[in-house]
Design brief:
Radius of gyration of chain A: 23 Å
Helix content of chain B: 40-55%
Keywords (chain B): FAD, Flavoprotein, Oxidoreductase
Number of domains of chain A: 3
Protein name (chain B): Acyl-CoA dehydrogenase
Number of strands of chain A: 11
Organism (chain B): Knoellia flava
Largest sheet of chain B: 4 strands, antiparallel
Distance between the termini of chain B: 40 Å
Shape of chain B: globular
CATH class of one domain in chain B: Mainly Alpha
Oligomer: heterodimer
Strand content of chain B: 5-15%
Family (chain B): Belongs to the acyl-CoA dehydrogenase family.
CATH architecture of one domain in chain B: Up-down Bundle
Structural class of chain B: alpha+beta
Order of helices and strands of chain A: HHEHHHHHEEEEEEEEHEEHHHH
CATH topology of the largest domain in chain A: Butyryl-CoA Dehydrogenase, subunit A, domain 3
GO molecular function (chain B): acyl-CoA dehydrogenase activity; flavin adenine dinucleotide binding
Largest interface: A-B, 61 and 50 residues
Strand order of the largest sheet of chain B: 2-3-7-6
C-alpha cells in the first residue's frame, strides 16, 4: 500500500541519502573515519527523532496503611433534575470565571507556542483542579464520586480553550485514576506528589496508539510478566505533556487483556518523541516509546474492568470538553451573524445561516444532556451495562456532531473563519480531536 | 442534583403505558393501518383504564390532557398566563409533574402505535390546548370530553398567524366562518378547539381559540383524509358556516392585546411540542428495538465499548441511531421538566421537537433499509413506522418552523427580521 511519507520518514530518507553519498567518498574507506561519521549520523538521527529520554523524579515506594480509599458513590433521589448541587455550582462558577478571564485570552498563544503560558498554569494550579477527582482523605477535594463535577469543570475549561484544558487536566486524569483504581500502596506512593509544595510537572494517561482503526481493547503495547516484573514494549501516541510527565499510566495487553500499568517516566527504556497534532496543541502531545521497560508487577493499576471504566471515563471527559468548546462556538457565532452584513442585512436574517446556528444549539444541548446523564450514572455506581451504553452514545455524538459544530464554526465566518485572526479555525481543529482521542482525560 | 433517569415515582406509570402498548396497541396496529377510517373499538375499553389512572392521581396523567403550560415569570407570555391553569412558580424545590409524566407515558403508548395513541378518547391535542389556556371554570366544564384541535386551513399551514377563519361577536355568542383541515381525531372527538381571528387586520394577536361542540349544526364535516401513515387516527376537514358559539367558549382572555407575543393560542405549542417529540421518541424506540432484535438474529450486535469503526457497518449505524435517540430523549425530558418547574421553555420545546422529529424519520427509514425485504414488506411493522414517522416532523410545527423558533430565540430576532 502506497502511503505519503511523513516528515520523519523524509528526514530519515534524507539521512540515508547522505549516508550513501558519504559512503561513496574515497575517505570513507578508512574504517576510523567511517566509524566516526556513522556515530555522528547515528546521534543526530537519535537527537532528531528520539528527542529525549523521558525525565522525572524517582518516586519512593511508600507502604499504604490499610486498604485503598475510594470516593463513595452518590445516592440518588430518584427525581429528574438538571440542577447541579451547590458544591458543583461553586466549582462551575469558579472555573467559568477562570475560563473567561485567563484561559480564553491565552488560547491562541498557547496553540501557537504549544505550551500553556506560565501565568495560566499557575492560576489553574492554584485552584487545585488536579485533585478534583481525588477524595478528601487522600488529600483531594472530592467528597464523593465526582464525574458530574468533572464534566462541569472540563466543560468550562474547554470553553476557554480545549488545548489548555487538556494540558492541565491530563495530569488530573492520573490522580483520578489512582483514586479510582489504585491500591493503598500505589495511592500512598504517588498521590502525595500531586499536591504539596513540589507537585509533579505533569502526569499522563496514555491509552492512544498510532495505528489506524485504533481499538483501546486491542492494543499493540504489551506488558509481559517476568517473575515479579512486567516488561513493556510499544508506542503510545498523542500523549499530552509527554515530555514533562513524570509518571504515566499506560494501557497494555497483559496476558491477553487490556490493563493499566503505572510507569515512572525515569524508568530505563522510556523515550519520548515529539508528536504534534492538528489540534490540542497547547497540550504538547508526544509519543511515548516503551522499549523493554521493566516495572514491578505491583504497578498493575486496577483490574480489566477498571481499564474498561477508564476508557469510558476518558471518552466522557473528551465529550465534556467538546461541549465546552461547542458552547464557545455558539456564543461567538450568535453575535457574529447578527453583526456581519451581506446583501444589506445581517446574515443571521437568512434561514440558511440562522438554521446552522439553530442546529449547533440543538446538537450541543443534546450532547451536553447525554454527557450529564452518563456522568450521573457513573457517580451513582449504576449498572456497568447502562454506563457502557450511554457512554458509547456520547462518544458517537461527539465524533459526529462536535466535528460538525467545528465545521459550522468556520463556515459561518467564511474566510474569516479560516484565518488565525479568529478562534474558529482552532476550534475546528480541537473539536475534531474530541471524538477521536482516547484516554488522556478522565472524569 | 443532576439526574436524567426516569423519576422513580413515574416508573409504575411507564410500566402501565408500556403494557398497554404491547398488549393492546401492537396486536391491532396493522389492522387499523389497513382499515383506515374504521373506529378502533378496542380503545373504548382502555380509555376507561386511562381515566381511572388519571383520576386516582397515581398516574399523574397518562395522556395529553394532563400537561399544563409553563408560567412565565418574566411576563413575556402574559396574555397566555391569564387563566393558564396550574402554576408551578419557579421555586427551590424541583418537581417532576404532569408535563414530564405525560411525555413519558406518550412515549410508551407511541412505541405501541402513534395513530392509536392519537385516537385514545379524551387524550387529544385539543385537550392539551384546553389544559394550556382555559380558565378553571372552563376546564371544569370541558372535563372528561374529547377535544380535537383545528388550526390548519387550506391556504394556511405553518403560518398559522395568517388564518382566515373569522369570529364575530354577536350578543352572547361568536359567529365563526371558515374552513379547517387536518383536524386530528376530528370525527371522533366531542369538542373541536378552533382557531379563529377576531380581526384579521390586527394580525396574530387577534387569534383566539374557541371550543366548538362537534354536534354544533354550524360545524360540518366535509371529508376524512387518506394518508401516508397514522391511518388509525382520523384526519377531518370541516366547514364552519355561521357557526354560533357561546361567548364563554372562547378560551382564555377575550381581549386583543397588541403587546405581547402570539397570545394564548400560540402558547399551546410550548405544551404540545414536547408531547409530539415524545411521540417521535416512541416510534423511534419501536423501530430501534425491532431492528436490534432482527439484526441480533442475523448475528449483529452492538458493542458499546469498542469503537464504531471496528464493528460492522450495521452495528455502527445502530450505535449512531441510539446516540441520536439519546440526545432527542434528553432534550424532550428537559423541555417537559422546565414546564413542570415554571420555566419558559419555548426554545427548548422546539429544540426537542426538531431533534426528535428528524431523528424519528431518519431512524425509521434506516431501519427499513437495514432489515431489507423484511423491513419493506407488510409482514413486520417497520415499513408502517417509516410511513407514520413523517407526520411527526410536520404537525405541531414542521422541522423548519422549529428551527425558526430556535434561531429567533437565540439571535433575539423577530419574525419580521428572520422570516
Amino acid at each position: 500500500m502506497a502511503t505519503t511519507p511523513t516528515l520523519a520518514d523524509r528526514g530519515q530518507r534524507l539521512g540515508l541519502r547522505l549516508i550513501s553519498k558519504a559512503a561513496g567518498l574515497p575517505v570513507m574507506a578508512d574504517p576510523k573515519v567511517r566509524g566516526r561519521v556513522e556515530r555522528i549520523l547515528g546521534r543526530s538521527t537519535h537527537a532528531g527523532f528520539r528527542a529525549q529520554v523521558a525525565v522525572g523524579r524517582a518516586f519512593k515506594q511508600v507502604k499504604g496503611s490499610g486498604s485503598a480509599k475510594r470516593p463513595s458513590p452518590v445516592s440518588r433521589r430518584g427525581v429528574f433534575d438538571l440542577t447541579p448541587t451547590e458544591d458543583q455550582q461553586m466549582l462551575q462558577e469558579a472555573t467559568r470565571e477562570l475560563a473567561d478571564e485567563v484561559i480564553r485570552p491565552a488560547g491562541s498563544r498557547a496553540d501557537t507556542e504549544r505550551a500553556v503560558p506560565a501565568e495560566v498554569r499557575e492560576a489553574l494550579q492554584e485552584m487545585g483542579l488536579v485533585l478534583v477527582g481525588v477524595p478528601e482523605e487522600l488529600g483531594g477535594i472530592a467528597e464523593e464520586r465526582s464525574a458530574v463535577a468533572g464534566v462541569l469543570v472540563l466543560e468550562q475549561l474547554a470553553r476557554g480553550d480545549m488545548g489548555i484544558a487538556v494540558a492541565q487536566m491530563g495530569t488530573a486524569a492520573v490522580a483520578t485514576a489512582l483514586a479510582l483504581y489504585g491500591d493503598a500502596d500505589q495511592q500512598a506512593t504517588y498521590l502525595p506528589h500531586f499536591a504539596g509544595d513540589e507537585p509533579v510537572a505533569a502526569a499522563a494517561l496514555a491509552l492512544q496508539e498510532p495505528q489506524p482503526l485504533f481499538d483501546p481493547f486491542a492494543l499493540t503495547t504489551t506488558a509481559v510478566p517476568q517473575g515479579d516484573s512486567l516488561v513493556l514494549n510499544g508506542t503510545k501516541a498523542l500523549v499530552a505533556n509527554a515530555d514533562s510527565a513524570e509518571v504515566l499510566v499506560v494501557s497494555a495487553m497483559v496476558e491477553g487483556e487490556a490493563r493499566l500499568v503505572v510507569v515512572e517516566a525515569a524508568t530505563e527504556g522510556v523515550t519520548v518523541e515529539d508528536d504534534p497534532a492538528m489540534g490540542v496543541r497547547a497540550a504538547h502531545t508526544g509519543r511515548v516509546v516503551l522499549t523493554d521497560v521493566i516495572v514491578p508487577r505491583a504497578n498493575l493499576l486496577g483490574t480489566t474492568d477498571d481499564h474498561r471504566d477508564a476508557v469510558r471515563r476518558g471518552r466522557l471527559a473528551w465529550a465534556a470538553a467538546a461541549v465546552g468548546t461547542g458552547q464557545a462556538v455558539l456564543d461567538q457565532v450568535t453575535e457574529y451573524v447578527k453583526e456581519r452584513k451581506a446583501f444589506g442585512e445581517p446574515i443571521g436574517q437568512r434561514q440558511a445561516v440562522a438554521f446552522m446556528v439553530a442546529d449547533i444549539a440543538i446538537e450541543l444541548d443534546g450532547l451536553r444532556l447525554a454527557v450529564l446523564k452518563a456522568a450521573a450514572r457513573l457517580d451513582a455506581d449504576a449498572d456497568p451495562a447502562q454506563v457502557a451504553q450511554v457512554v458509547g452514545e456520547v462518544r458517537a455524538l461527539t465524533a459526529t456532531h462536535a466535528a460538525r459544530i467545528g465545521s459550522h464554526a468556520v463556515q459561518l465566518l467564511g474566510g474569516h473563519g479560516f484565518v488565525k485572526e479568529f478562534d474558529n479555525e482552532r476550534w475546528y481543529r480541537d473539536l475534531r480531536g474530541a471524538g477521536v482521542l482516547e484516554g488522556t482525560l478522565l472524569v | 442534583m443532576i439526574d436524567l433517569e426516569v423519576p422513580r415515582k413515574f416508573r409504575p406509570l411507564v410500566e402501565q403505558a408500556r403494557g398497554m402498548a404491547e398488549e393492546v396497541f401492537r396486536p391491532i396496529s396493522r389492522k387499523y393501518d389497513l382499515a383506515e377510517h374504521e373506529y378502533p373499538r378496542e380503545l373504548d375499553l382502555i380509555s376507561a383504564v386511562i381515566d381511572g389512572l388519571s383520576s386516582s392521581g397515581a398516574g399523574q396523567g397518562a395522556g395529553a390532557s394532563s400537561s399544563t403550560r409553563a408560567t412565565d415569570p418574566e411576563g413575556e407570555g402574559e396574555v397566555a398566563a391569564v387563566g393558564s391553569g396550574r402554576h408551578h412558580p419557579a421555586g427551590s424545590k424541583v418537581r417532576n409533574g404532569s408535563n414530564l409524566s405525560s411525555v413519558l407515558s406518550i412515549l410508551e403508548t407511541c412505541r405501541g402505535d402513534v395513530g392509536l395513541t392519537l385516537s385514545i378518547p379524551r387524550q387529544g391535542l385539543g385537550n392539551a390546548a384546553i389544559a394550556a389556556v382555559a380558565n378553571d371554570e372552563q376546564k371544569q366544564r370541558y372535563a372528561g370530553q374529547w377535544a380535537a384541535m383545528a388550526i390548519t386551513e387550506p391556504e394556511t399551514g405553518s403560518d398559522s398567524g395568517a388564518i382566515r377563519t373569522t369570529a364575530v361577536r354577536d350578543g352572547d355568542e361568536y359567529v365563526l366562518n371558515g374552513e379547517k383541515i387536518y383536524v386530528t381525531a376530528g370525527e371522533r372527538a366531542e369538542l373541536v378547539v378552533v382557531w379563529a381571528t377576531l380581526d384579521r387586520s390586527l394580525g396574530k394577536q387577534a387569534i383566539k381559540s374557541f371550543v366548538v361542540r362537534r354536534d354544533n349544526p354550524g360545524l360540518r364535516l366535509v371529508r376524512l383524509e387518506h394518508k401516508l401513515g397514522i391511518r388509525a387516527s382520523d384526519t377531518a376537514a370541516f366547514v364552519l358556516d355561521d357557526c354560533r358559539v357561546p361567548a364563554e367558549d372562547l378560551l382564555g382572555d377575550p381581549e386583543i392585546r397588541i403587546e405581547g407575543g402570539f397570545g394564548g393560542a400560540m402558547q399551546t405549542f410550548d405544551n404540545t411540542r414536547p408531547l409530539v417529540a415524545a411521540m417521535a421518541l416512541g416510534l423511534t424506540r419501536a423501530s430501534l428495538d425491532l431492528t436490534t432484535e432482527l439484526l441480533a438474529k442475523a448475528g449483529v450486535t452492538v458493542d458499546w465499548d469498542r469503537p464504531a469503526h471496528v464493528q460492522s457497518h450495521a452495528a455502527a449505524r445502530l450505535l449512531q441511531m441510539e446516540a441520536d435517540y439519546e440526545a432527542a430523549h434528553a432534550l424532550t425530558l428537559r423541555a417537559a421538566w422546565m414546564a413542570d418547574n415554571g420555566r419558559p421553555n419555548s426554545m427548548e420545546a422546539s429544540m426537542a421537537k426538531a431533534k426528535a422529529g428528524r431523528t424519528c424519520v431518519d431512524v425509521s427509514l434506516a431501519c427499513v433499509e437495514l432489515a431489507g425485504a423484511t423491513g419493506y414488506a407488510e409482514r413486520e411493522l417497520l415499513e408502517k413506522w417509516a410511513r407514520d414517522s413523517k407526520i411527526l416532523d410536520i404537525f405541531e410545527g414542521t422541522q423548519q418552523i422549529q428551527l425558526l423558533v430556535v434561531a429567533r430565540r437565540l439571535l433575539g430576532m423577530t419574525s419580521a427580521q428572520l422570516k
